[in-house]
Amino acid sequence: MTRKNIFGVAAIALLMAGSAGVQSIRSEEGAAYVGKEKCAMCHSDIGASYEGTRHAKAIESLKKTSQEGVADCAKCHVTGYEKDGGFIDYELTPEMAGVQCEVCHGPGGKHVGDPMGGKMVREPGEELCRACHTKGQDPGFDYAEKIKSAHGE
Predict the structure, then answer these.
(1) Domain covering 3-122, topology
(2) Vertex 48: Cα angle to 111 and 121 (nearest 5)
(3) Which of 6, 37, 70, 96 has a CA that sits 20 to 30 A from residue 16's CA?
(4) How much is the pTM?
(5) Three-state SS at 75
């Protein structure tokens, strides 16, 4: 068994150990990554409009040039890259591909587990967006304009 296969089997076992479909792997904020499908269960209007955004299809731009495995590229095109419970690779965690809710709002496990009391980890801001939308990578990025359509509305 290869190292990647061993890691994948361990990751899958940990993912399956969660209750009610919420991953038991914790992020640095102490909440589990749950993925966009869990978010859309309650936020269906946002979930539906999000599917038409460039963030939803972010990994596709890397796949066109075979760069989905390049760490410096992938980290801005997936959810939870190099974080517990986040994107590992397209084979093991395809459900975490794309720039999903939790990239901006933080891991949603606490919120899914307690919707009325489990607040999201953070409110997004320009600094968070600028981690990927740098002046070098995206010189025309206008936060004030882009935030208006972040959910695809």
Answers:
(1) Flavocytochrome C3; Chain A, domain 2 (1.10.1130)
(2) 25
(3) 70
(4) 0.75
(5) coil
